């Protein structure tokens, strides 16, 4: 009887994207992303994870894009000292010292007709009409603050952690938000305009994972020494599933008289060659 012996050592080296990180804001810091076309969508979904430690200000801003003199915003996410979530008029309870996911969508249904929806932890908590077009100018996007004075240094600041900030170029449904909020993204998803994982752990730059690139700065500038407005990198991140990185599979043949057959398998997009000897 002809016997085929598979002799070898298979080493599987499987690694995952280390989702360990976020930015910590202590009420005196902010991060900002310079204005780009990607930050001016006509329709959008804006989402992030946050963990609030306290509510020291009149409004505690998570993410804003000011316009004009800074007293108005193209979009903004904030909550008040009584921990009521408020994105223009939406309200719902926010529990301190716990991670929450928040998403804001904008939908245009016709000339001068549009609406916005607010989702907290994947559940719609508010809906309201809004007259487009959205007012945009060259103001940056702020994380952890708002720029009411239009001086490039945000106020009304946030105390807590922010992670996984995403901007989409279309309004996403509740089902779509729920399907991706608990997982890291690749940065190549259809409709994704900008995406900051906030996993850097060091440095002055928060990198946009989308190829077009809208990198942000910690604090007022990108000088290596930093400044008093820099938030801190921390290892605690939002409770989400990391992206599996390509696994490396190797086969070391130890013996055999002849190569009888060669099969190729695909595993996570990486070729695995199996030789039967």
From TrEMBL:
Keywords: Disulfide bond, Signal. InterPro entries: ConA-like_dom_sf, Ice-binding_C, LamG-like. It holds the Pfam family PEP-CTERM. The keyword Protein transport does not apply. Residues 42-175 form the LamG-like jellyroll fold domain. SUPFAM superfamilies: Concanavalin A-like lectins/glucanases (SSF49899). NCBIfam families: PEP_CTERM. This is LamG-like jellyroll fold domain-containing protein. The lineage of its organism: unclassified sequences, metagenomes, ecological metagenomes.
């Amino acid at each position: 009887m002809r016997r085929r012996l598979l002799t070898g050592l298979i080493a599987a080296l499987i690694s995952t994207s280390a989702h360990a990180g976020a930015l910590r804001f202590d009420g005196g810091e902010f991060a900002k992303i310079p204005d780009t076309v990607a930050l001016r969508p006509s329709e959008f979904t804006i989402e992030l994870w946050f963990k609030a430690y306290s509510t020291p200000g009149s409004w505690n801003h998570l993410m804003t894009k000011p316009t004009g003199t800074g007293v108005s915003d193209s979009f903004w996410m904030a909550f008040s000292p009584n921990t009521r979530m408020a994105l223009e008029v939406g309200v719902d309870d926010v529990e301190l010292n716990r991670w929450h996911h928040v998403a804001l969508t904008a939908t245009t249904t016709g000339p001068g007709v549009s609406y916005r929806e607010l989702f907290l932890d994947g559940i719609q908590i508010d809906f309201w009409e809004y007259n487009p077009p959205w007012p945009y100018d060259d103001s940056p996007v702020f994380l952890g603050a708002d720029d009411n004075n239009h001086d490039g240094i945000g106020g009304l600041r946030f105390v807590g952690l922010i992670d996984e900030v995403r901007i989409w170029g279309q309004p996403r449904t509740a089902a779509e938000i729920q399907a991706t909020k608990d997982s890291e993204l690749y940065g190549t998803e259809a409709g994704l305009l900008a995406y900051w994982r906030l996993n850097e752990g060091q440095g002055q730059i928060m990198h946009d994972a989308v190829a077009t690139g809208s990198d942000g700065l910690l604090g007022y500038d990108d000088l290596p020494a930093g400044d008093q407005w820099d938030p801190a990198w921390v290892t605690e991140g939002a409770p989400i599933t990391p992206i599996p990185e390509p696994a490396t599979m190797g086969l070391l043949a130890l013996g055999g008289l002849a190569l009888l057959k060669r099969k190729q398998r695909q595993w996570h997009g990486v070729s695995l060659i199996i030789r039967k000897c």
